[in-house]
């Protein structure tokens, strides 16, 4: 299980970006590709551990699953892969290794903690 | 209530590893070293296969190996019998190698004195797939005793590799290994993948693989010289 070290890298990256912008973060948005080799549940669990005793403690990790998109030479267009166990065009069945999307492991946005609304 | 404010940052989480891997790849290119990494589950015969590879390639090439392992140095001791330079990377609790570990391990080696460098990853079919080590070629090993559907169970690592090696072929008949089904599983997760079926124990099929490595090495040297 390498999700804990990945979670720690996510926390490091988020903290660095937050500090640079002078913001406090309530949630970290992550794009996670189906080919990233990272297990989502293990990552969510690890994230909590990795946040402990950092300014991100109590923050949320929001994961956006990114499916694999391949380019089919036969159909001349991008296609959504139905399963990572079958690298073939869902339309014509031609095998393809032309991966256009699905390897993402990217912190793409931070949610800013709003000041408590006061009367 | 207003929507929470989102700030776009776009940070690749493994950027640090990728940057080091890129630097390693450039260093390998500049020194003309062809780097082959090996991934597999524990017990698929990586070390026996690597020992044979080092011994057989040594008369023709200057070879060396880095071996990753969680705790022991047994693999390095075994590989040292080949008389090739071998260094152990003990990862402790870490289940995979990262580019920085390779960089550290190579710090006191003169790459100009090498032709082929082998990197044996920790026995694990999940975690190593996320980490680029700067290698030219990634081999994924699978023994005939593991079941033909292994690639379907671990598609990501097979997809990240360049070549599949079916090991322990001397046991194929005993375990009723279904070659056609294994081949289909591999092609399903990694269309076009080259497959070698061999036995490090009897030597069957090893020559073909050595020829392949030699050709790959020659191609890389030709490109590096341009």
Descriptive key words:
heterodimer, A: 119 residues, alpha+beta, three-stranded mixed beta sheet, three-stranded antiparallel beta sheet, 6 strands, B: seven-stranded parallel beta sheet, 38% helix
Briefly, what is this?
Chain A is of the alpha+beta class and 119 residues long.
Write the layout of secondary structure elements.
The complex is a heterodimer of chains A (119) and B (226).
Chain A: H1 3-21, E1 25-33, H2 40-51, E2 60-66, E3 69-72, E4 77-80, E5 99-101, E6 105-112
Parallel strand pairs in A: 1-2
Antiparallel strand pairs in A: 1-6, 3-4, 3-5
Helix pairs in contact in A: 1-2
Chain B: E1 6-12, H1 15-31, E2 34-39, H2 46-57, E3 63-69, H3 74-80, E4 86-90, H4 99-106, E5 116-120, E6 137-143, H5 150-153, H6 155-160, E7 163-167, H7 179-189, E8 194-197, H8 206-225
Task: Describe the fold and architecture.
- The complex is a heterodimer of chains A (119) and B (226).
- Chain A has helices at residues 3-21, 40-51; strands at residues 25-33, 60-66, 69-72, 77-80, 99-101, 105-112.
- Chain A is an alpha+beta fold.
- In chain A, the strands form two sheets. Chain A has a three-stranded mixed sheet with strand order 2-1-6, with helices on one face.
- In chain A, a hairpin with a 4-residue loop joins strand 3 and strand 4.
- In chain A, helix 1 packs across helix 2.
- The mean pLDDT of chain A is 93.
- Chain B is an alpha/beta fold and 226 residues long.
- Helices cover 38% and strands 20% of the residues of chain B.
- The mean pLDDT of chain B is 93.
- Chain A binds chain B through residues 1-2, 5-6, 9-10, 13-14, 17, 21, 23, 26-27, 29-30, 35-39, 84-88, 95-97, 105-112, 114, and chain B through 2, 4-14, 16, 94-96, 126-127, 129-130, 152, 155-157, 159-160, 187-192.
- Strand 6 (105-112) of chain A pairs antiparallel with strand 1 (6-12) of chain B, so a sheet runs across the interface.
């Amino acid at each position: 299980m390498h999700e804990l070290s990945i979670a720690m890298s996510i926390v490091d990256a988020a903290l660095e970006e937050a500090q640079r912008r002078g913001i406090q973060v309530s949630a970290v948005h992550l794009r996670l590709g189906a080919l990233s080799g990272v297990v989502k549940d293990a990552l969510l669990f690890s994230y909590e551990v990795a946040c402990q005793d950092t300014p991100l403690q109590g923050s949320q990790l929001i994961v956006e699953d990114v499916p694999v998109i391949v380019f089919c030479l036969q159909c001349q267009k991008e296609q959504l892969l139905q399963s990572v166990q079958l690298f073939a065009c869902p339309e014509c069945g031609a095998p393809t290794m032309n991966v256009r999307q699905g390897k993402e492991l990217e912190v793409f946005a931070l949610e800013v903690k709003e000041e408590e609304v006061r009367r | 209530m207003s929507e929470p404010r989102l700030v776009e940052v776009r940070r690749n989480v493994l950027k640090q590893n990728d940057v080091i891997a890129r630097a390693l790849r450039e260093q390998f290119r500049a020194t003309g070293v062809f780097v082959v990494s090996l991934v597999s589950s524990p017990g698929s015969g990586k070390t026996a296969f690597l020992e044979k590879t080092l011994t057989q390639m040594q008369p023709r090439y200057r070879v060396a190996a880095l071996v990753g392992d969680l705790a022991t140095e047994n693999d390095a001791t075994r590989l040292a019998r080949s008389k090739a330079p071998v260094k152990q990377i003990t990862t402790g609790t870490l289940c995979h190698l990262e580019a920085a570990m390779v960089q550290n391990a190579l710090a006191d080696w003169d790459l100009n004195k090498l032709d082929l460098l082998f990197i044996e990853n920790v026995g694990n079919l999940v975690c190593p797939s996320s980490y680029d080590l700067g290698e030219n070629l990634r081999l994924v090993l699978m023994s005939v005793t593991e079941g033909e559907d292994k690639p379907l169970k671990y598609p990501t690592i097979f997809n990240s590799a360049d070549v599949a090696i079916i090991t322990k072929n001397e046991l194929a008949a005993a375990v009723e290994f279904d070659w056609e089904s294994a081949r289909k599983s591999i092609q399903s997760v990694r269309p076009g993948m080259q497959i070698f079926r061999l036995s490090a124990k009897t030597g069957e099929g090893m020559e073909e693989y050595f020829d392949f490595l030699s050709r790959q090495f020659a191609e890389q040297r030709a490109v590096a010289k341009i």
